[in-house]
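User: Predict adenylate dimethylallyltransferase (ADP/ATP-dependent)'s structure from this.
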Amino acid sequence: MEGSMKPFSRRKDKPRLSTVTKCKFIKASTSSPTRSPTRECRGVPHHLLGIADPNANFTSDDFKHHASPVVESITIRDRLPIIAGGSNSYIEALANDDSEFRLRYECCFLWVDVSIPVLYPFVSERVDRMVKAGLIDEVREMFDPNNVKDYSQGIKRAIGVPELDHFLRNEASVDAKTRRMFLDAAIDKIKENTCMLASRQLQKIRQLYSARNWNMHRIDATPVFKRSGKEVDKLWDKLVAEPSTMIVKQFLFDKNYVSPHPLIPPGSINMEPVSVQIMAVGAAS
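Assistant:
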């Protein structure tokens, strides 16, 4: 996605940077669990959503191929490109493995973290919202009873699809009570696998930090996820949006900016899984 430069003062000698997320690249209907609802985009232009064949895998190399020209097109218009994910292997492929990208751009990474006791209930509630929004019907549309449970390609790899296989194969041949039991079991599995994904993402972030020594800043959003109602937006602005804006502004425009000291001192964090959405923003050298 791309952000306006209005929150920042201008400095023409430092043009701006890039875009990401895994199954959201795949073409799907607007009710798909892999599609970002328009209301969630909040008027911010998003790129690379729905560009891939739903039956094909979208690799990190594919992402590099598509993301680089998007980054360039955004910087040409003097806008701030933002890579948001999710899929840290894609971010690594672009920001570290693409030699041309490394030569042209310097990156600043924001890690929005949520503690595990707070994260898991949020994951559960989010899955429930996805089900209410039409997840079951969407997966049913793509379900093929003749498929031998091969969920290794394209959109069928997405969490929420393979977990519903047993329910969809049997829903027409069992009574209502059993059907409900199968569905509840599938939903519980979706929640479990989503939490496991968060754990793997955390491990990936640690790996990237220790191996790549990226310019990474941790933003603790746990207090935000503990609240509800109108105060959530205000707390998000105070604890996440405002500090992130300050970090990016310093990175882009402060001539004396120095990369932070190590974010994760050895042994300072245990191995419990934590929420890991990672954003990257940057500017050309």
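The radius of gyration is 20 Å.
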